[in-house]
Write a structure and sequence with these properties.
Rossmann fold; about 15% strand; oxidoreductase; about 300 residues; 7 helices; SDR_fam; NADP; globular
């Protein structure tokens, strides 16, 4: 057995950033099935982007590298999903990917997407919700309601919709056996919050609030679903070298304030996510794991 014998769902599979605007997206979800082996794990990744890897894409690749062989990829961008699929298969030639285009802000899209995954593979064992956006930087009196709604709907509501759909399936299924004989869980969810869930910085009222809401959602759901043997945690990344932070230089003060004085890498966040998903973390529940080079500590 591998470390990840179950089915994983990750939202934000390629960049972790929602592109393009929802007005440009077809509302109809549809599936594109690849033809690789159907053995072992089923990770499912949501929201890919054809540009350089972000957290979601790196999580998907890391699942493949660690032995997952069925990976569902969910996103708005078919080209980005195809690239993520290609990179997963490059990391593990036995992987079969399942691509589903959805908008995480659309309840019907999310529900249908998760149903496609369970119809194809029967269960969801690891769900990683990465999709998000930063939005314009402005103090509250200069932020429009449309901008505020776009950020909070994508980050908080979108994460809640995905998590809710994942929980609906996890409650129904039996615990997955682990590679090392430890008692397994019915499912594991890892939400991607932010270091700005814990502290704040100027001109980020909507983003900081939306990510703090994800942290609170994580803790609340952890209390409610422990009785179902479902573990729920979140990671709180700092400044990570992704498409979302491409214009932030290594010398920027928001990077320098962290004691490690550099951007993190998507792989470093993915490593934390996979730890939380694994049987190495069977007593970690309701936690917010900072992956920020010491930003919050400083």
């Amino acid at each position: 057995m591998t470390l990840f014998e179950g089915v994983a769902v990750v939202t934000g599979a390629a960049s972790g950033t929602v592109w393009p605007p929802s007005s440009l997206i077809s509302p109809k979800p549809h599936a594109l099935i690849s033809t690789q082996s159907l053995e072992h794990t089923n990770p499912c990744i949501t929201f890919a982007n054809p540009k350089r890897p972000g957290i979601g894409r790196q999580v998907a690749i890391s699942f493949a590298r660690e032995g997952c062989k069925r990976i569902a990829l969910l996103d708005r961008d078919e080209d980005g999903l195809s690239e993520t699929s290609r990179m997963c298969k490059e990391a593990n030639g036995d992987v079969r990917t399942f691509i589903i285009e959805i908008d995480n802000r659309n309840e019907d899209d999310v529900s249908a997407g998760m149903e496609y995954v369970t119809e194809e593979w029967g269960r969801i064992d690891y769900a990683v919700n990465c999709a998000g956006m930063f939005g314009p930087m402005a103090p509250s009196h200069l932020l429009t309601t449309a901008e505020f709604d776009d950020i909070t709907t994508t980050n908080y509501r979108g994460t809640w919709l995905c998590s809710r759909a994942e929980l609906v399936q996890m409650i129904k299924q039996q615990p997955m056996k682990t590679h090392d004989g430890r008692p397994g869980n019915r499912g594991v969810i890892v939400n991607v919050a932010s270091n700005l869930s814990l502290v704040s910085r100027p001109e980020t009222p909507a983003y900081s609030a939306s990510k703090a809401a994800i942290l609170s959602l994580t803790k609340s759901d952890a209390v409610d679903y422990a009785k179902y043997n479902i573990r729920i945690n979140c990671v709180c990344p700092g400044i990570i070298d992704t498409p979302m932070t491409s214009e932030v230089s290594q010398n920027d003060p928001i990077v320098a304030v962290a004691p490690m004085k550099r951007k993190g890498t998507p792989q470093e966040v993915a490593d934390a996510v996979l730890f939380l998903c694994s049987s190495k973390a069977t007593f970690v529940h309701g936690a917010a794991l900072s992956v920020d080079g010491g930003y919050v500590a400083n």
